[in-house]
Design goal:
With 752 residues, the protein is mainly alpha-helical. Among the domains are: 2-20 and 57-233, Rossmann fold, CATH 3.40.50.300; 239-302 and 316-333; 335-476, Arc Repressor Mutant, subunit A; 666-752, Serine Threonine Protein Phosphatase 5, Tetratricopeptide repeat (Alpha Horseshoe). 59% of the residues lie in helices and 5% in strands. The chain has 32 helices and nine strands. The chain has a six-stranded parallel beta sheet, with helices on both faces. The chain has a three-stranded antiparallel beta sheet with strand order 7-9-8. The longest helix has 23 residues, at 21-43. The protein is globular. The termini are far apart. This is Tetratricopeptide repeat protein. The chain crosses the membrane at residues 12-33. It comes from Actinomycetospora cinnamomea. Keywords: Membrane, Transmembrane, Transmembrane helix. InterPro entries: NB-ARC (IPR002182), NLR-like (IPR053137), P-loop_NTPase (IPR027417), TPR-like_helical_dom_sf (IPR011990).
C-alpha cells in the first residue's frame, strides 16, 4: 500500500459556469415541465419499452473554473502513476476538499492532449448503487457489450463484474472515474453487504494495465481499498492558491492582503472559498469586500454541537460550517425567504445526484416556514429562491432525463442535515423532513409503475428515495411514514415490471425495516411484504412466495373495501405463484375472479386487468383448453395493441405466449409467423442476445423443424447455441438443451 500525502489542491466544484449559467435554464425548464406534465403523462402508455437503461458517463467539465490553479503536482502524480502501475488511485479527503475537481481536471487534461493516451474516458457517479449501475451499464454498451452483458450488470448478477472487466480488457485504453464513492461497499460487486470491501479485486475495482481508475471518496482506510490501491490524501489549499481563488472569483473585493487574511481564516477549504467568492459578487450583497466579510464572519459565533461527516476539531470544516449560512442570510435579506428551507429540504436528498427541481413546486406551502407572508405566485417564489441558491453556488444545475435538476454538494448537504439535527431548528426540522418525504411521495404518485415512459423518472428518484428512507424516515409521523413506504413499494414494483430485480430488492430491503414501526396491518407494510414475496418467486422459490401471498391477501381483505385494489393486486400475484407451482386449474379459477373484479373497478382495458387476463389465458393454454385460450389471446392482444401499443412489454409477453400456445397445438405455420413478428420487435428493443430473444429464436427453430424445414431450423438452432454459449456459458441448462436440439436436427439431415 502506497500513500501520496503531500498534494496541493484547488477546487471550485460549483462554478460560475455551473451555477449562474444554469439559473435561467432552470427557471425556464421548471415552467416547461409544469406546463407539459399532464400532456406528457397522457402519452406515457403508448411509448415503446426502452432497452436496458444507462446513465450519463460524460465528464462534468462544465463545473471547472476558467483556470484551475494549484493542481500541477497531483495531476502529474496521477498521470505518472497510470503509466507505471496497474493499481488504481484513491483520492481521499472530506467533502468539499476538491477530490472531484482533481478528477475532472485530470480528464480534461487527458482529453485535450494532442496525443491522447486514452481512447475512452468515462465518469461514473458512485454515490449509490443506482447511479453506479446506470453508469456501468453505459460503459458496457460503449465498450461493445451485448444486451445480455448490460442486463447482467443492471440486474446485479454475480457474473456482472467479470463481464464488465472482460469488455474493458478488449476495448482499447481507457480512464474511469468512480466519483463520490463514500460508501465503498457498493464497489465491491453484486450481493455484497454494507460492510463489504472493494479491495479484493473481485468486484468493480481491479488493477489493470489496459487502463486507469481513479476513485474519489471520504474513506481513507487503507484496508478498505486493498493492496491494489494507491491512496492520495487531499489537503486544503495552501495560502497562495487559496488567495488566488478568492481574487479570481471576486477581483473587486479588495487587495491581495485582505484576500489572504480571509483565505487563511477559511482554512484554505476550497468549497468554502468558492461560496464566499460567489457571495462577494452577488449584486448589492451586504458585505462586498474581503475585509467586511471577514469581520462579519468572525462576529458570527459557530453553532455548537454540529458534527459534519467525519469532521474533527482540527478539520477546516469546523471553521466554515457557517459560510453557507452567511450566504443564506443574504438571500433572506433580499427577500428570498424560502432559500434556507429549500436548501434544508434538498439536504435530505441524495447528494451529488440530480434532483428534479419541479418537484419542489408540489410542496404544501405550510411545510416551508418563513417570516413573511407568502407571495401570490408560489411557483415563482420557489423558482426565485432556487435561482438565488444557484447564483451563490449553494446548488448546481444538472439537467437529467430532459428535466431541469439541481445538485447539492455532499459537504453542503452534510451541513444542512447537521443544522436540522441541532437543537436550534427542532420545530423547523420536522417541517423540512415532512417536506422532503412529500416531494418523493407526490412524485411517485404521479407515475405509473407499468408505463415504460415513467421508468426513467423512477430511476431518477431512486437515490433520493433511498436517502429519505435513511435520513428522513426516523423523523416522520405515522401517516407520513406510511406514505413514504408506499412510494417505496410502488418504485420497487416499477423495477419488477422493467426487469430490474436487483434494484427492486434493494429498495424493498431499505424500506422493510420501517414496517416494525408501522405495524403488521398497515397497508404499506403489506405492500412491501408483497414486493418481497414477488421477488422471492422471481428468484425461484414460488412455493415460499405462495405462502407469503396467501397471508398478505388475508390481511388485505381484513382492511375492507378501502383497500380493494391492493387486495386484487395481491390476489393476482398469488394466482401467479400457484401457476408457477403447476396447479393450473386452481390458477385459472383465481385469475377469473381477479379479472372480473378488476374489470368492474378499473375497466376491462386497464393495464392491471389486462395483466390478469394474460395469466388467465396462459392457465387455459397450459390445460390445453385451446378454444377458450385462443379466443382470450385474440381479444387480449387486440386490447393491448389498442391501449398500450405493439411493442409494450405486456403486449410482447402476450404475443410470445400466443406463439407458444399455437406451437403446442401443432399450428406450426401460424406459430412461425407470430414468432417472426415478435422477433422484429425483440431485436429492436432488447437486442439479439437477450434471453427472451433467444427463447423466441428457439421457438422459431422448433416450428421450422416441425415443418421438416431442417436446414432452416439448423441455422436458427446454431444462432441460438452460439449466443447462449457466449452469453450463458457452455454448462448452462439452456445451452445444453440448444446443443441437444441442434444435434437432433443434424442427425435427421444426415439420414434424410
Amino acid at each position: 500500500m502506497s500513500r501520496y500525502a503531500t498534494i496541493v489542491d484547488y477546487t471550485l466544484l460549483w462554478t460560475v459556469v455551473g451555477s449562474v449559467a444554469g439559473v435561467g435554464a432552470l427557471a425556464a425548464g421548471i415552467v416547461q415541465v409544469r406546463l407539459s406534465r399532464q400532456s406528457q403523462h397522457r402519452r406515457h402508455n403508448n411509448q415503446p419499452s426502452p432497452s436496458v437503461a444507462g446513465g450519463s458517463v460524460s465528464v462534468p467539465t462544465g463545473r471547472l473554473p476558467p483556470e484551475v490553479l494549484g493542481r500541477e503536482r497531483v495531476i502529474a502524480f496521477i498521470r505518472d502513476h497510470s503509466r507505471q502501475s496497474p493499481n488504481y488511485i484513491v483520492l481521499t479527503g472530506p467533502g468539499g476538499i476538491g477530490k472531484s475537481t482533481i478528477a475532472t481536471e485530470l480528464c480534461r487534461v487527458e482529453a485535450e492532449k494532442r496525443w491522447r493516451r486514452f481512447e475512452h474516458i468515462w465518469w461514473i457517479s458512485a454515490t449509490d448503487k443506482t447511479t453506479l449501475t446506470l453508469g456501468l451499464v453505459t460503459v458496457v454498451k460503449q465498450a461493445g457489450g451485448s444486451v445480455a452483458d448490460a442486463l447482467s450488470v443492471s440486474n446485479g448478477d454475480a457474473d456482472g463484474p467479470d463481464r464488465f472487466w472482460g469488455l474493458l480488457q478488449a476495448c482499447g485504453r481507457w480512464l474511469i472515474i468512480f466519483d463520490n464513492a463514500d460508501d465503498p461497499s457498493i464497489l465491491a460487486g453484486p450481493g455484497q453487504t454494507r460492510h463489504s470491501r472493494p479491495g479484493d479485486a473481485t468486484g468493480w475495482l481491479r488493477p489493470s494495465k489496459a487502463g486507469s481508475i481513479v476513485v474519489t471518496t471520504r474513506d481513507n482506510n487503507s484496508s478498505t481499498w486493498g493492496r491494489h490501491a494507491t491512496l492520495c490524501d487531499v489537503p486544503p489549499l495552501d495560502l497562495a492558491a487559496a488567495t488566488e481563488v478568492l481574487l479570481n472569483l471576486a477581483p473587486d473585493a479588495g487587495p491581495p492582503t485582505d484576500a489572504a487574511l480571509l483565505a487563511s481564516r477559511l482554512g484554505g477549504f476550497p468549497l468554502a472559498l468558492h461560496v464566499v467568492g460567489m457571495y462577494l459578487t452577488y449584486p448589492l450583497a451586504r458585505f462586498s469586500s474581503f475585509r467586511e466579510y471577514l469581520a462579519a464572519y468572525d462576529a458570527n459565533d459557530l453553532r455548537p454541537g454540529l458534527d459534519v461527516g467525519n469532521a474533527s476539531h482540527d478539520d477546516p470544516r469546523d471553521n466554515v460550517l457557517e459560510t453557507w449560512e452567511v450566504s443564506l442570510d443574504e438571500l433572506a435579506r433580499r427577500g428570498l425567504k424560502l432559500a434556507r428551507p429549500l436548501l434544508r429540504i434538498i439536504s435530505c436528498m441524495a447528494p451529488a445526484a440530480p434532483f428534479p427541481a419541479h418537484l419542489l413546486n408540489s410542496l404544501d406551502r405550510s411545510l416551508l416556514p418563513t417570516d413573511t407572508a407568502p407571495q401570490a405566485n408560489f411557483d415563482v417564489e420557489i423558482e426565485n429562491a432556487l435561482a438565488g441558491l444557484l447564483h451563490l453556488g449553494l446548488l448546481s444545475s444538472a439537467p437529467a432525463g430532459g428535466l431541469p435538476c439541481v445538485v447539492i454538494h455532499p459537504a453542503i448537504a452534510d451541513a444542512g442535515r447537521a443544522h436540522l439535527e441541532s437543537q436550534h431548528e427542532t420545530s423547523r426540522a420536522r417541517l423540512a423532513y415532512r417536506a422532503a418525504a412529500s416531494c418523493i411521495v407526490d412524485a411517485v404518485a404521479h407515475l405509473q409503475f407499468s408505463a415504460p415512459a415513467d421508468w426513467p423518472m423512477f430511476s431518477l428518484l431512486t437515490p433520493h428515495l433511498h436517502a429519505t428512507l435513511s435520513t428522513v424516515a426516523p423523523h416522520l409521523n405515522h401517516q407520513d411514514l406510511t406514505l413514504l413506504c408506499k412510494a417505496a413499494a410502488t418504485t420497487a414494483l416499477s423495477y419488477d415490471w422493467s426487469g430490474g430485480l436487483n434494484a427492486a430488492t434493494t429498495i424493498t430491503e431499505s424500506a422493510i425495516p420501517w414496517t416494525a414501526t408501522l405495524g403488521e396491518q398497515n397497508p404499506s407494510t403489506l405492500l412491501l411484504r408483497q414486493q418481497a414475496a414477488l421477488q422471492l418467486g422471481r428468484r425461484g422459490d414460488w412455493s415460499g412466495s405462495e405462502l407469503e401471498f396467501k397471508d398478505i391477501v388475508r390481511r388485505f381483505e381484513d382492511l375492507g373495501a378501502e383497500h380493494k385494489r391492493e387486495s386484487l393486486a395481491c390476489r393476482h400475484d398469488f394466482a401467479r405463484a400457484v401457476a408457477h407451482c403447476g396447479r393450473w386449474n386452481e390458477a385459472e379459477a383465481l385469475c377469473r375472479g381477479v379479472a372480473t373484479e378488476r374489470a368492474a373497478i378499473l375497466g376491462i382495458d386497464h393495464v392491471e386487468t389486462l395483466a390478469t387476463r394474460h395469466h388467465l389465458a396462459r392457465s387455459l393454454a397450459a390445460q390445453r383448453k385451446w378454444h377458450e385460450a385462443n379466443q382470450l389471446f385474440e381479444t387480449l392482444l387486440e386490447a393491448e395493441r389498442r391501449t398500450l401499443g405493439d411493442d409494450h412489454i405486456a403486449t410482447l409477453a402476450s404475443r410470445d405466449a400466443l406463439a407458444r400456445s399455437l406451437a403446442d397445438q401443432g399450428r406450426w405455420t401460424e406459430a412461425e409467423a407470430t414468432y417472426r413478428e415478435i422477433l422484429g420487435s425483440r431485436f429492436e428493443i432488447l437486442g439479439v442476445d437477450h434471453p427472451t430473444t433467444l427463447a423466441n429464436l428457439a421457438g422459431l427453430a422448433r416450428t421450422l423443424e416441425a415443418q421438416d424445414r431442417l436446414r432452416e431450423a439448423a441455422v436458427e438452432y446454431e444462432r441460438v447455441l452460439e449466443a447462449r454459449t457466449r452469453v450463458l456459458g457452455r454448462s448452462h441448462p439452456d445451452t445444453l438443451e440448444s446443443s441437444r436440439l441442434l444435434n437432433n436436427v443434424r442427425l435427421r439431415l444426415r439420414s434424410s
